[in-house]
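Hi team,

Filling in the usual template for the complex we talked about on Friday. All components are listed, including any nucleic acid strands or ligand strings, so the model treats them as one assembly.

SUBMITTER: L.P.
PURPOSE: interface mapping
COMPONENTS: two
RESIDUES: 485
SEQUENCES:
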Amino acid sequence: MIRVDNISKRYGDFLVLDKVSLSIAKGAKVVICGPSGSGKSTLIRCMNYLAPHDTGVVSIDGVEPKNRRSCEAVRREVGMVFQNFNLFPHLTILENCILAPMMARKLTRAQATERAYQYLKRVHISEQADKYPTQLSGGQQQRVAIARALCMEPKVMLFDEPTSALDPEMVGEVLDVMVELAGDGMTMVCVTHEMAFARKVADQIVFMDKGQIVEVAPPEQFFTAATSPRAKTFLSQLQH
Amino acid sequence: MAFDSSVFFGALFSTAFLNGALVTVFLALLSHGVGILISIPAALYISGPPSLLRWLVKGVLGVLRGAPTLLQLLFVWNALPQFFPVFREPWFSPFLAAWIALSLNEAAYQTEINRAALGAIDPGQKAAGVALGLTRFQILRKILLPQAVRVALPSTANEFITLLKITSLASVISLSELMSVTSRAVATTFQFTEYYAAALVYYLVMVYVLVFLQSRLERRLVWNTSAAAAAPGMLQKAMAFYRRS
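RESULT (copied from the run log):
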């Protein structure tokens, strides 16, 4: 589904990604973790060309976009959920959900609205459709952001630390939605520090450090028998 | 010398004053309209990465903002015809000269307002639009501009009030706007108070109609209830306006 082949990226002198390769199969649930500054968010942002990589290849479903138009086309197949939700504050919840399907998928308002309600129900928030984002709690906003991405009916969903900006009591409701989504067979790539979620949902943990992928392992193996010293240190710090 | 109310009301309801006020309003509206039309692409353009042409555009905007408006009016009216013979034709009226000068002047100020408004939007908004696969134009039209308008509206309305008063400078290039009508009436009768009071009434009415429209527009653009409660009312805005003037 997503193939990342030997990509590197610099911010000025700082090498954020150093020859990273990763392959994500259809239906896979991959959790990317690692210390801050390790390049996890940049890697996931390379997967929809939001942060263009300098060298290497990123292809989605076998397509490697060559220009802006094809980038835009590929992004419609890749949903993304951000740490800070990034809902459009001047639009209602419903309008947030129908904007892109109408503009980019050319659905009619009626079709887009029907679809929006379908996904808002799926994240258990359809009763808030006519409110504005600031009238909702953080957890509710993030669930709307998930619904907004799903309204494009993407083939894969990227989550960039979806619960990091939330109050602790709201983390659960967002993770529940993500677990349900995983249960429905969605291909998911998730940057998160929620290790309980990773253990429950992921079929692969990718551990990054200093712009490189240090270890790739199934959760059981990663949490009990990590091989790299850096991953061991990271895991021991999580226990405190 | 007592205040002669018949002179005051005579001036207030005279066609000369009414025409002067209409010239003032139309000049302000047309200049701000053109200024805004220029300023939106200008603001988008100068927000881009630095380049030689960008520095040049910024330089021109800097001159337009830095030079006194009176000088710009006189330059367009007196100096342009020296450089370009087309401006020596009879169609080049004081109104047209004032319109050109004030439009350019206003475009420079409005560009700054728009640039700041665009800059005030969280970069995450654009990222969200990009991630949804929208085109750059769709992101601009549906996501960035609606939010920027909300931010820019109070300063834009203030700018328009300032502009409405600045049109009085056009009296120096013999445009018959409200202030030159007033000056002419004073020059023949020396009844300063009555005519100045009549002009004052016109200016205040025009400004307050604007302040009222602004508050209506702002209320329409508010997109949630908490922000509506925090937005300043008409009275606060009028007071703020007087403190500044």
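MY TAKE: Chain A touches chain B at residues 48, 50, 68, 72-80, 82, 84, 86-91, 99-100, 103-104, 132-135, 148-149, 152 (CB under 8 Å). Chain A is about 40% helix and 25% strand.

Thanks, L.
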